[in-house]
Predict the 3D structure of the following.
Amino acid sequence: MATDYYAVLGVRRDASPDEIKKAFRRLARELHPDVNPDPKTQERFKEINAAYEVLSDPQKKQVYDLGGDPLSQAGGGGGAGGGFGGAGFGNFSDIMDAFFGTSQQRGPRSRTRRGQDAMIRLEIDLNEAAFGTTKEIQVDTAIVCATCNGEGAAPGTSPQTCDMCRGRGEVSQVTRSFLGQVMTSRPCPQCQGFGTIVPTPCPECAGDGRIRSRRTLTVKIPAGVDNGTRIQLAGEGEVGPGGGPAGDLYVEIHETAHSVFQRRGDDLHCTVTIPMTAAALGTKVPLDTLDGTEDVDIRPGTQSGQSVPLHGRGVTHLRGGGRGDLIVHVEVQTPGKLDAEQERLLRELAKLRNEERPTGQFQPGQQGLFSRLKDAFNGRS
């Protein structure tokens, strides 16, 4: 042969593919026409591009090592003219690699891929959220096909090498551009880039390697979870195509409303309505808490809007020990209708307390929108 491609790239004849690629990238950065427009440099760039086109392709390299001319057989390189490269830009992506550091993964892609994550919603009540529980849930997810064990091929058969791309997963095409002849690669249309085809798909999974199935799982709910809390179950999600590893399953907690308590963080709130006389004299009101029935001590003279805390009767802290509080808000109810005897007694009480004609205690109230606008126009702050 007239040209020694190994000498052009400055590598040994037993150089590895990585050594050949590194040598080409180094020379391409120095000799590319966009960097060095000298005509002699352009000719030199054609040589290194032709050398790399041959030595980076196992089939062309084999033809070259046996003394053949792989470029003339492939219809590229040699004396072809046009643009910058009579030798053709057979591996244009590697030229881009030399300047921008990008890299494309070549070769067939695997049929085995990781499955997607899944999420389900689980409703629990306040008591379960406060103290934790264990639940059994049913999930519909993809599992490995037992008929083909994830391979996708019918029993007794196996995937075969694609005859279009010969197992490479991609096919190459030579086109002309302003740079000359450019060889581009794309996924093989026959095997979809896998490098193999399944002539007889599994009748159970239709070649996907997985089927959908309903499973029962046991989930441990920790004490203190709240609305929106997500519990991760690693490896319990969707099995991937080709029997690939499963994704994760996320259980999202939704706490149902309680008939008495309202949750705010780890504290619980409720309202107790008592008559005016009980607020004045004091009393004890039984309350069904999460820990059982307890008496709420209403002290004499309790006013409407006051609260009585029950410490440590709330929800367990999710992180750290202890529990929140139970806050009982008191609402004093004034009687609306009185019979004659009740009215007489109340008037007598008012007389004894010198409250027959109370003057009242007035405090500034909140202004409405129109009052604030009026004050603004009148220059009041």
Observations:
- Residues 39-55 form the longest helix (17 residues).
- DSSP finds ten helices and 16 strands in the chain.
